[in-house]
Amino acid sequence: MAKTTEPAVTTGPVWDWAAGHGPVTGALSATTGALALATTGAATGMPPAWALAAGAAGAIGHTATSIKDRLSSRTIGMRAASWLIGAGWTTWAMATGPLSWAALGSLATLGVGLGAAARSCGLYEEARELEAIATAERQVARELSAERRQIAAEWVDRVQRVCGITLTVLAVEQWPTGTGFTIDAELPGATTYDRIAKETARLSADARLPHGCTATATPGIHQGRVLIDVTTVNVLAEERTYPTDYTPLSLHTGLPWGVRTDGREVLAYLREQCALVVGPTGSGKTNFLHTVLAGFARSTDVLTWVIDLNAGSAGLPWVRPALDADGTPQRETRPGVDWLAASYEEATLMLDAAVRIAKQRKVAYQDLMAQRNTDLLPVSAQIPQIMLVIDEGAEILTSNDPKMRKLAAKVLEVIRIARAMGLRTVLTALGATGSVLGNLMIRREAKARVCLTGGEVEGMDLSKVFPGARGLRVDQAPYKGAGFMGTPESPAGLFKAWRILPSQIRDIVHATSDMHPTLDDVSAKAAGDAYATRWNPERTAWMRDTHHTPAEKTPQPNGTAGGGLNLSALRDQRPATEPSEEDALAAQFMAQIDAEFATAPEPGAAESEQPERRPGLNLSALRDEDNAAKDAALAVLLAAGPEGTGASAIARALAEEHGTSRQTVVGWLKTWTDDGTAVRVGTGTKARYVHHRHAPEA
Questions:
Q1: Residue 125, burial from CB neighbour count under 10 angstroms (0-12, 13-18, 19+)
Q2: Does the pLDDT at position 552 exceed 70?
Q3: What does the alpha-carbon distance between residue 523 and residue 384 come to, in Å, rounded to a whole number?
Q4: Which of 148, 257, 360, 517 could form a disulfide with 526 if both were Cys (CB 3.0 to 4.6 A apart)?
């Protein structure tokens, strides 16, 4: 039978041997220790001076540790005196006998005195600690000036009134620029900051902030804190010139694209991200694009390629200062952009080269990435990142033109395959609409987003550009160059773009010429002759030709002119020279086409007034189709009745038969509104258009 052991039952007080001594136990320990030492020393004949030396050593050691712990002089003196008095009694008792009534009585008296002194010093230290805490709180209160306390009180009341939340304001920080302040507050319970963020407009109105000023809420140091940035001076209305400090920049440390309302520069980090810039005509989008190009020109690890099918206007100011009269780059000055495409053919060459570079880098730099233990190509001045800037690139992605569709497919391929290999894009768009932002690839990859509003409401749906952001309204930034910018590192908020002048662009081109990296050998070999001959005079002739645009005559890499149909409707004058034999054959062929397909005269003109038509295709059929689509759109508007309709609905109704885009319908509606054919009802995303027959005033 197994023997069972009963658990031991303990009675009496339970001792905590890990606890420190208090005033009573400390005094008891000291006196019993002194008595034991004196008795042992007297019995063994130990020299009494040894006890005095030990006490002196203990006093010195405790004094040193007390000074290190920053205790008061009263406590330090009490501890040193305890050691010395105890050592003195032990020395005397060893010499005269520790077991006499005089020795025992004096020891008991010393114990009581030590306990009382220890208790008094402990209370003093507690009071001293509380006073230090109170002093620190008074110091914080003094730093929080009367003005700041007033601001804190006002905003506690305001948030309570508008949002129904009682805040505890911890700090109010005035901005160095003097344009506003930041409130750091603690939220009650499980409340989150977005309860305040969604009431931005109401808070701004309640505070009677000037136009262009806002009160925006962002997350604090943890999820129970909130930062409320309050702008009190409208800095968006001011024109700010681009900084003249053209110091080198790096893609890894961020590129400045403008300033926030508190004067801080807002940075874009584009190593892995693409960017999207939205801005209608007149909002300052082209100027902002030059700011982006200025940042790229100052970067020591970036090469910029620009596609602008509108005669290359975005990139020309960055190229022309570095070209000689014959079109070749100067030796002492390099262009601000590394490649500029202004035609469909040149853009195709550029995008094909970009795809080849991305694929070749994937293979050639495997050893380097393995050595660096990374799956991203180590971008540097030796292996620069290629930033592909495409003006109105979002419109290219949504175009129904077959050529533009091919170009769009190449752009999307670069975005899709080239992130890790250091090729990223900056696309611009004229409007923040579903048709422009409907591409999943753009929404997923373009994490750095800018929306320059310029006060334009039509087609500026900020919720599509910054999904999830609260309190953003177009009327907060009604000035040219002002708008909203958001990145993964900085939440969407108001900002002001710099004004960059043409003279500054020339200065930046010359000042940053030595900063530009060169394309690495692996990439240059993959890009081929299309890249190597990009600055050949025959390919840059359009930059110096003031009579023709790049679309009229597109040079090929081998220097030959591109062929194509000679559209007579697009020519303003006859050739200055006599036609060659080839031109005569082409003209005869075009005449046969005109006779075969019975091209029509200009609508509305009498036959007797028709000028003699030159050989070539007559595009009157396209004009008739456009008029038919416009008439169909007007019929849809009339059929909508008093309820009216919008541009998107009209475009969907015409899409199957006419393929009309929403942007075209928007232009028609604006024209009809101006001439009285239609009446606009409502504002913003609630705007509707009603035919004048069904308008309320009719």
A1: middle
A2: no
A3: 10
A4: 360
- The region, left, alpha or beta by phi > 0 then psi within -120 to 50, assigned to residue 601 is beta
DSSP for residue 472: -
Long-range contacts from 394-399, C-beta under 8 angstroms, 24+ separation: 394/276, 394/278, 394/427, 394/428, 394/429, 394/430, 394/436, 394/437, 394/442, 395/429, 395/430, 395/436, 395/663, 396/309, 397/427, 397/439, 397/442, 398/435, 398/436, 398/438, 398/439, 398/661
Angstrom distance (rounded) from CA 540 to CA 562: 14
Q: Which two tokens stand for residue 434?
A: 């579903």
Q: What share of the chain is helix, strand, coil (3-state, %, to 5)?
A: 45, 15, 40
Q: Where do the CATH 3.40.50.300 domains begin and end in the chain? A: 276-544
Whole-angstrom distance, CA of residue 378 vs CA of residue 359: 16
Angle between helices 49-68 and 23-44 (to 10 degrees): 150
Query: Hey, what are 480's tokens?
Result: 């040219």
For the beta carbon of residue 19, count every other beta carbon within 10 angstroms.
Answer: 8
Query: Which runs of E-coded beta strand occur in 16-164?
Result: none
- Domain span(s) for CATH 3.30.980.40 in the chain: 146-231
Separate counts of helices (H) and strands (E) for the chain: 23, 16
Separation in Å, CA 282 to CA 275, 278, 308, 453, 499 = 20, 12, 18, 9, 14
CA distance 100 to 379: 89
Q: In this structure, is the dihedral angle defined by the CA atoms of residues 636, 638, 642 and 647, taken in order, positive or negative?
A: positive
Mean pLDDT of all residues belonging to the chain = 80
Question: Rounded to whole angstroms, how far apart are CA atoms 282 and 265?
Answer: 24
Query: Residue 77 CA to chain centroid, in angstroms?
Result: 60
More confident residue, 406 or 54: 406
Structure tokens at 12: 């009496």
Nearest to 568 by CA among 590, 550, 585: 590
* Alpha-carbon gap, residue 349 to 645, rounded angstroms: 43
Bigger pLDDT: 60 or 231? 231
Given this model, what pLDDT does residue 196 score?
92
DSSP letter, residue 170:
E
pLDDT digits (tens, 9 = 90+) for 32-62: 777 677 777 666 777 777 776 777 777 777 6
Q: How long, in residues, is the chain? A: 698
**In the structure encoding, which two tokens stand for residue 486, read together?**
């958001």
Q: Does domain 276-544 have CATH number 3.30.2350.10?
A: no
Burial 103-119 (b: 16+ CB within 10 A, else e): beeebeebbeebbebbe
How far is the C-alpha of 193 from the C-alpha of 195, rounded, in Å? 5
The per-residue pLDDT for range 347-398, each reduced to its tens digit, is 999 999 999 999 999 999 999 999 999 999 999 999 999 999 999 887 788 8
Does domain 146-231 sit in CATH 3.30.980.40?
yes
Label residue 382 exposed, middle or buried (CB < 10 Å: 0-12, 13-18, 19+): exposed
CATH architecture of the domain with residue range 582-603+613-698 = Orthogonal Bundle (1.10)
